[in-house]
Amino acid sequence: MSENRKPTLSKKEQAARKQKIIRLVIVYTLLTFVALFIVTPFYWMILTSLKTAQQIDRIPPILFLKPGDWQLRNFALALQAAPYARFMMNTVIVAAISTFGTIITTVLAAFAFARINFKGRDFIFMILISSMMIPGEMFVITNFMTVNTLGWIRDQSFIDALAAMSFPFMTSIFYLFFLRQTFKQVPDELYLAAKVDGTSDFKYLLKVMIPIAKPTIITIIILNAMGTWNAYIWPNLVSPQNENYRLVSNGLRNAYRDLSGQVAYNEQMSAALIVTIPLLIVFLLLKKQIMRGVSRSGIKG
Amino acid sequence: MLEEKHNIKAWLYLAPAMILLLVFTFYPIFNAFFLVFLRDFNFLAGSFDGFTLTENFVYILNKPDFKKALLNTLMIVFVSVPVSVILALLISAWLNSIKKLQGFFQTIFFLPYVTNAIAIGMAFAFLFHRNYGLINTIFNWIGLPSINWVGLGAGYWSSMFALLVFIIWSGLAFKIMVFLSGLQSIDKQYYDAAKVDSTPRSRIFTKITVPLLSPMIAYITITSIIGAFKEYTAVIGMFGVRLGPAGNDGALVTIVALVYEAISRSGSDGAYSEAAAASIILFAITLVFTLINMQVSKKRVHF
User: Fold this and answer.
1) B90 phi and psi, to 5 degrees?
2) pLDDT digits (tens, 9 = 90+) for B119-130
3) Max CA-CA distance within chain A?
4) Do B172 and A38 make contact, defined as CB atoms within 8 angstroms?
5) Residues of A (179-198) whose Cβ lies below 8 Å from B
């Protein structure tokens, strides 16, 4: 009986193994195709940014460039065409102000919602949560009127521009919610023990809660900074006149044209790459935090 | 817990966030519902000509651009959402079934999330360039003629197609991340039981994986639908402020684009009420879709 079963079983096993290998080959092939689909726009951007104008005009296009042929001066030309260093500095300043503001306001409010007992707490929290469903475009109309009334648009100084770009983004219901969840996980015993020792609430927040919530806070800083780097619509709306007040995304939409009026695609793509690379570097350095933060959080900055 | 109420202290902690929210979130919501009932409101002059219940809605609904914007937006919603959700589901299932190179693929698939929409939109436009683009090069390799996707005088369908490819590409990263973390948290016991019964893989996918992932699928679908209704930056990224291929300006206008277009006319009568009407219509549409989706998922979602 046992001699009879053995060969059939291993035959079955063999068939199963064969099937598994075929399946894996198919899965890896499909994943490779998807990866190519994802990477192609980046590759096209990089390749184009390194071509000469003559190389771009070639039909069919050149698909690969030897390192010796790379036209690195395209980047210098792109940087001359628009003050990108200035745009980047503006973006970093706005990101710093709005992120700093967001952290302060959301940490304080999240602490109140998670730790302090006050009248109407759950009701107010529910209102905040339900307002997340309302599209931001509805706020933009009045916010534009508000920054106008505050005098941040007409005869705009650099400080006005910075205020108009960062003030509406100095808090966030979503990050408040995110932080409250983290604070709620801190055991009550810690708080009660601190109370017995006579620690004030504020000191408790500073010495216990914030260190525990550090990963969440770092995630918020990263997502918020990335959001500012990608912000286009609002900065474009509130700071249209002075080129020196632009953020990176707004500077990008300049038309890059050569002397004959043709679009200089290589310079355009160099500029796009200059804007893309800092984000990619930050991502590769902080890959773990960003990916974990995003899969936990759920929205884009 | 036996704690007395600390109302004053609580409000000290809440104040900074609450003041900002009142000014920049809650007041704007009420104000939008106020503006929409003003007749000929002019922001710069600070004047208006009485109240009206429906005029602003009627005006925007009759605008030829609004119909165009609504159709474009619906097209983006009904094509990009199902395609990207299904693709992301398949990709994350494939990703979850391998061990080697899983982290590598995961990193690559995440890249679109950390890119600037304007920068990568410009790269997409060049990818679809009639003469110098890679897409037409591939078309020619397989014997198909070149198509004028997004260039001067390009047609509506070709430029819409290119835009949809870009939108789907941009949206995959986040969905794959969420689905993959969902898949990794599914109890292995279900799969072991299926293995004992030697259930075919396709059946495991439809009978175990999808039902157990359904809360996440519902969540992703709702947020994607709302996001797709608000699409605007992708159009700017690919086509610039013309919102369409050269010679076909405004062909790819969306509802949100109309809101911003109206805001930019701050000196003209009724512009802000028009923007408010468009944003309220957008809110109503997203609300309806959210409610429908919540009802459907209540019945179907396996928690």
Assistant:
1) -65, -45
2) 999 999 999 999
3) 96
4) yes
5) 188
Instruction: Classify domain B63-300 at the CATH class level.
Output: mainly alpha
B224: closest CA among B81, B79, B71?
Answer: B81
Q: Position B273: which residue type?
A: S
pLDDT at A97 over 50: yes
Which residue does chain B place closest to A32, by CA atoms? B105
Cα separation, B261 vs A187, in Å, equals 50
Q: Which residue of A has its CA nearest to B239?
A: A253
The complex's ipTM?
0.90
Query: Hey, where are the domains in chain B?
Result: 63-300
- Partners of A144 on chain B (C-beta within 8 Å) are 263, 266
Direct distance between the N- and C-terminal alpha carbons of chain A, in angstroms, rounded to an integer: 66
Does residue A76 sit in helix, strand or coil?
helix
Choice between A295 and B218, residue whose per-residue pLDDT is larger: B218
Cis omega (within 30 of 0) on the bond before A60?
A: yes
Class of domain A82-254: mainly alpha
Q: Is A121 on the interface with B (CB under 8 A)?
A: yes
Q: Determine the straight-line distance between the first and last CA of chain B, rounded to whole angstroms.
A: 31
The residue ranking higher by pLDDT, A255 or A123, is: A123
Please tell me if residue A206 touches chain B, with a CB cutoff of 8 Å.
no
Place of tokens 């390009």: B154
Q: How far is B156 from chain A (nearest CA, A)?
A: 22
Torsion angles phi and psi, residue A200, rounded to 5: -75, 160
List the structure tokens of A233.
């619509």
Token pair belonging to B184:
């990794």
Q: How far is Cα B223 from Cα A135, in angstroms, rounded to an integer?
A: 12
Calculate mean pLDDT across residues A76-102.
91
Q: Where are the domains of chain A?
A: 2-71, 82-254
